[in-house]
Amino acid sequence: MNKITPETILAQMRQMSEAAQNNPIKSTQATPNADFTSAMSKAINTVNQYQSEASQAARSIESGDGGVSLVKAMIASQKSSVAFEAAVQVRNRVVSAYQDIMNMPI
User: How many domains does the chain contain in total?
Assistant: First the structure.
């Protein structure tokens, strides 16, 4: 299990921010659905990974394993909670957009 520290979380946030700023939008018209599908799949896999890390940290705390501190377990739990909430919000926006499109008059 990876060690979760505030420094690693900040480093990941900076890395994601730089990637978002440096990633030019590709003008591919052939596979826009595949790009969205792969992005959503990657996001869901990341949320799953965060949740499994948080569960493992919680189990380590419950069993009394000295390798994981309570602070690290709480950070892992909050990280997975934030990632899950973000995924739920994206899903809600997609469903809302779909409903808006379906309610448009032809």
Answer: 1
